[in-house]
Design brief:
183 residues; 27% helix; Peptide Deformylase; globular; alpha+beta; 7 strands; 28% strand; 5-stranded antiparallel beta sheet; 3 helices; single chain
Length: 183
């Protein structure tokens, strides 16, 4: 039985609430996941995957749901294609190319806000999977961008922190205005 066996019944799982900036946990460095955290981590996954897919999003970091630990969910499969969910525990980028790529990014913690961010085109990431195995994986394109974006969350960095202060302030003001309108 897969540790992600709940994925076929996500419609029945209540999505975890996603925090919206400027929540303090979103600007804090998350602590490493320890072996004693694994039970709680596994219990958090169904609600987190449900929230990510329903948003819809392609990545979600634990701090975005108020868990200040170093793990992220990623699934960059095209809409309509088979899901390709990944759980990266204590991920770290161990190599990145000098070649940069610009890509429009958004964030579930900054709903409806988008901006172009420049990041390394390709990376090599090391992480632990749910079985506790250490994995090293090369990633490029959208997957590389998504992994870098989610690891940024673990370091208390939002995609707007990569923008000029003028652009960042514009995005954050727009977000605040939208959030105020929702209340």
């Amino acid at each position: 039985m897969s540790s992600l066996d709940f994925l076929d019944r996500l419609d029945d799982i209540k999505p975890t609430s996603i925090l919206v900036a400027p929540q303090p946990v979103l600007s804090q460095v998350a602590r490493a996941v320890k072996p004693e955290d694994m039970t709680a981590l596994r219990e958090a996954l169904p609600g987190m995957f449900s929230a990510m897919y329903k948003a819809p999003g392609i990545g979600l970091a634990a701090p975005q749901v108020g868990i200040s630990q170093r793990f992220v969910l990623v699934d960059v499969a095209d809409e309509g294609a088979a899901r390709n969910p990944m759980v990266l525990i204590n991920p770290e980028i161990i190599e990145s190319t000098e070649t940069l790529a610009a890509r429009e990014e958004g964030c579930l913690s900054l709903p409806n806000q988008y901006a172009e961010v420049i990041r390394p085109e390709s990376i090599r990431v090391r992480y632990r999977n749910l079985a506790g195995e250490t994995i090293e994986q090369d990633a490029s394109g959208l997957l590389a961008t998504c992994i870098q974006h989610e690891i940024d969350h673990l370091d208390g960095i939002l995609f707007v922190d990569h923008l000029s202060s003028l652009k960042r302030n514009m995005v954050m003001r727009r977000l605040a205005k939208e959030q105020k309108r929702k209340r």
